[in-house]
Amino acid sequence: MTSPCPSSRAKRATASLDAAARARLAVVPGSADSSGSEHKAAAAALSSLVNEYLLEADGATVPSAAVLAAGGSDVEDDEHDSRGDSGSAAAVEEVEEITRVLDAAGSGDDLRRRIFADVVDAMRELENVRAERSAFRRAVMSLLRERVHDAGLCKARWDKTSGMAAGSYEYIDVVIAAAESMRYIVDIGFAGEFEVARPTEDYEAVRSALPEVLVARPDDVRKIVTAASSAARRSLKRRCLSVPLWRKRKFMLAKWLGPYRRTVNAVPTSAGTAVAGGGASAVYRTVHGFQAPPQIMTSTGLSG
């Protein structure tokens, strides 16, 4: 068995104290409402130790104590490592968990399959503008709307807090029932968000189970991200590398489940300054028929 890095032993010595302190300082989150074509999901008002967890419960727009607890913590990861569990055994469990969640999400869900098929078709149609990542994502969203999906571009953004770096991320969502906050999260580059330095073979096995194109409900996203983040953390520790703030579980969860703004505009408000014939303006012309896209061969990386 691989010997633990010196720093991990010191962390385990204070794990119980840290857990107790967090439990005493936990508070119940509040919420706020907003309206308009672009809206910001309400951020939770948590204590300095808890507000770094940015999540969105399935069917809710703010974190709840139950969801935070379900997401786990870095302290729990330290305790898991201290038991000396086999990295390979843990990786097998994580692969099984990810596969189980994805299979269960797609079982009997005709709408999810339809959304997935439309996303893949849109990506193939827009392959010629894929290099413009943000514009490409917006163009895919626009095509989904043309295919009668209530799709939007979600821009998650969060500030720096104790133990968590500031960050931002963009993804697509498809709203099913706005009044009940039912939606699917759509990410067209999901697996790529889990790359780490010097990955172990066990972690590569876990990452290979992640889909490049993800269409899933928020709670399923939480389960998948939690499993993959635990595997990433273990891989880095096996290499005696520190876990960067932008690879910690709470940071990764915030990308898809944190506070966000949603827009359905086909072109960003800043597109008027784009150079004629390029950038978002070119993508807009492609999506709306002013410029016919070239014939694109089927990509081998988009199989469902």
Automatic annotation (TrEMBL):
Keyword Iron: no
Source taxon at top rank: Eukaryota
InterPro entries (UniProt xref): PDDEXK-like (IPR006502)
Coiled-coil residue spans: 119-146
Keywords: Coiled coil
Region (Disordered): 71-90
One Pfam family linked to the record: PDDEXK_6
Matching NCBIfam families: A_thal_3542 (TIGR01615)
Name of protein: DUF506 family protein
Organism field: Oryza meyeriana var. granulata
